[in-house]
Design goal:
alpha+beta; four-stranded antiparallel beta sheet; 1 helix; about 60 residues; 4 strands; single chain; flat; about 25% strand
Amino acid sequence: MTVHWRKSSYSGGVDDQHCVELGRLTPGVGIGVRDSKDPDGGHLTLTTTQLAGVIAQIKQHAEG
């Protein structure tokens, strides 16, 4: 299985220290989330619902 990773447009920071990539895994498995600075370090697998929840929490924290 080849996963095409896409770097978040919100990644960055000093020396690009906050780098997150997302990749669609095998259909039905979910979305992979990994640190782009350590692509061989593994990834977190989330369902689309879980990923939406994480994003909502991040947005809420940023606003609050």
